[in-house]
Design goal:
CATH topology: Conserved hypothetical protein from pyrococcus furiosus pfu- 392566-001, ParB domain
Shape: flat
Strand content: 25-35%
Strand order of the largest sheet: 1-3-5-4-6-2
Distance between the termini: 69 Å
Number of strands: 8
Order of helices and strands: HEHEEHEEHEHEEH
Number of domains: 1
């Protein structure tokens, strides 16, 4: 961490951030290419994918927790901006990523990320750049406000029943 406020220190912080960001982008591009070749996409999982076939039947706030970065596997809404290792994929992430990295490297206290827990996996609601920067600089865990989603499988009738006039029709009786 850099704590001095002199020009040399600020310059070395920016060089470190730029170097790290470019390296991550290059590795993300290579990972994406290798994923296509191998038939295994390197996409960041979406919360929608995680809950596909399930319905959220409840949720509750778990409060502030320290969460291992390795358990954060996806995002609620930024899946196209980062790969599954939270490496940046899009150039529009650069400015924000640099600001978050500079704050972290100079000791600025950043707010906790906002995560949704589904089973043992976590999905970012707010803080994708903070997760990316934390991983890039070798952090093992991160402070997070966690909300647990309780999910239950959709029943066959919920998934397949056609709806007419607001009433679900059931099996052969509906035909």
């Amino acid at each position: 961490m850099y704590t001095s406020d002199n020009v040399e220190t600020r310059a070395s912080v920016m060089v470190e951030i730029d170097s790290r960001y470019r390296s991550l982008c290059n590795r993300a591009a290579l990972g994406r290419l290798l994923g296509v070749i191998a038939g295994r996409p390197r996409s960041l999982r979406s919360l929608t994918q995680a809950t596909e076939g399930y319905r959220v039947c409840g949720q509750h706030g778990e409060g502030l927790k320290t969460v291992p970065l390795s358990r954060i596997v996806g995002s609620e809404g930024r899946c196209k901006d980062f790969d599954r290792d939270f490496r940046p994929l899009k150039t529009h992430t650069q400015e924000r990523w640099y600001r978050v990295a500079r704050a972290q490297l100079t000791g600025v206290n950043l707010p906790p990320v906002d995560l949704i827990r589904v089973g043992d996996e976590y999905y970012v609601r707010d803080g994708n750049h903070r997760v990316s920067v934390a991983r890039a600089f070798g952090q093992v865990d991160i402070e997070a406000l966690v909300t647990e989603y309780q999910v239950a499988p959709h029943t066959t009738l919920e998934v397949q029943a056609p709806v007419t006039g607001g009433v679900a029709m059931q099996g052969a009786a509906a035909a």
